[in-house]
Design brief:
It contains no helices and 13 strands. A hairpin with a 4-residue loop joins β12 and β13.
């Protein structure tokens, strides 16, 4: 299909309010809004008030930054994390995994980043690696050994 419309990558934030009918609202830019990108991931945080955005791509540049959108405040912030984040990437998956609280400890929540396409500097490669972001301490860790076949 041909079109005279130029394509662009945006960093707009929209909120969908469910109901009859559902409505979309554009959120004004507040805080440290992520740069325009696509092929990133957005994951709901355990408190259900935040959405974590990781990675993505724009004009050949891939990202490995971590941004959090506060649903209540409607404001963005950059989340400074300890540890070593995954290499810049797009086309990855991100999933939150919740572990139930045990007798003496609180519930544990982790974000898992798997795979993707990208790399440091100008290198580009397909990844089959796995990284964890510990959400209680905001610390990245790469899982060095895994059991079973790689997907």
């Amino acid at each position: 299909i041909k079109s005279d419309v130029a394509y662009a990558v945006f960093n707009d934030t929209h909120i969908l309010t469910l109901g009859e009918p559902g409505t979309w609202d554009l959120v004004p830019d507040l805080g440290d809004v992520p740069s325009p990108r696509w092929r990133h991931t957005a994951t709901l945080l355990p408190d259900s008030d935040g959405v974590l955005v990781f990675g993505g791509l724009c004009k050949g540049r891939r990202f490995n930054d971590t941004h959090v959108f506060s649903i209540e405040k409607k404001e963005w912030s950059i989340k400074e994390c300890a540890g070593t984040p995954p290499h810049p990437r797009s086309h990855h998956t991100a999933n939150r995994v919740d572990f139930e609280a045990e007798e003496e400890s609180a519930a544990d929540h982790k974000l898992i980043i798997i795979g993707g396409y990208g790399g440091p500097g100008s290198t580009r490669d397909f990844y089959l690696d796995l990284h964890l972001l510990e959400l209680s301490t905001w610390t990245w860790a790469k899982v060095e050994s895994m059991k079973g076949p790689v997907p």
